[in-house]
Amino acid sequence: MATTTNRYLSYPAAAAGISRASSGGAAWSYSAYTEVVPASTITATYYVAGLTWAWHTPLAAVDTTYEWIIEIATGAAASEVLILQVPGSVRNDTAVGFAPSNYVIFPEPKEVAANTRLSVRVAYSLATTSNTISGLKILYQTA
Amino acid sequence: MANTDLVLRIPGQLNANVRVQSGLTAWSYGDWMVLDSSVPNTINIIGFSFSWAYIPAVDTTIQCIFDISVAPRGQRAVKIQLPFSLRSDTAVGIYNVKSNLVYLPEGFVVPADSEIAVRVADSIVGNLGYNCVSLLVQTTTAVNVSPGNVFSNNYQRLKGNNGLMGVM
Description:
Number of helices of chain B: 0
Structural class of chain B: mainly beta
Oligomer: heterodimer
Largest sheet of chain A: 5 strands, antiparallel
Radius of gyration of chain A: 16 Å
Strand content of chain A: over 45%
Helix content of chain B: under 10%
Largest sheet of chain B: 5 strands, antiparallel
Shape of chain B: globular
Radius of gyration of chain B: 16 Å
Shape of chain A: globular
Distance between the termini of chain B: 24 Å
């Protein structure tokens, strides 16, 4: 395993994570982007090491798989450039229980230039119904 | 794929239920809990685990963040932050322990003689407790974890040396 002396930090940290609703339109239609990291906030080169979020509730219709894709992009609003796609799925047996964190750790952290804005958008397999993921935060490395 | 001949183990209180509490107000931190007051040699932190001890209200997301400090003894310097969340559909069910086990993509290097401490903040008003806080580390020292030492909630335990980790 490679090792690092960079810190692993969360954005946001001790604050609520990002909520992002799906489009509510056709299946696999993308939502608009929501800002995760504002420009000029992380002022040194950083490396996106992971992503965490909470599913919506109800999780899914019983015996149905909802497939999602979460996209992370760099750049200013309306000029986003995709850098990370994170697929996920959720399936319900019964509509009871808890939805723990979804954690995706990347095998190699993705380098992002200092002061770069990050935003997120989502799409999923269910048509017409809008669902919202919440508590979305990035894990990143920086000096 | 890279591999290792370092030993994987849990530092500090091997058998203890290490419990940390959040602060009273939303997103305020509780006290630091020392996991290891002086690591004997350089180690790499490669994973973190804990157990929820709180049931959120239905259709409500609780979010928390753990800060891990690595610094000389008695000092604090946050080197790792790990956010988690839990959302309830109905107030019955199980806790998915695996979701509370996170491996870092690159081990964080902890110099010898460092003190490792952890604290937590969350989105809830009130002091919430978080159980079974554990680090998984790589080290060159001889492992002293007996087969009966449970890693977290009977989910995984460490065994032997040569970097092997058994999954129960």
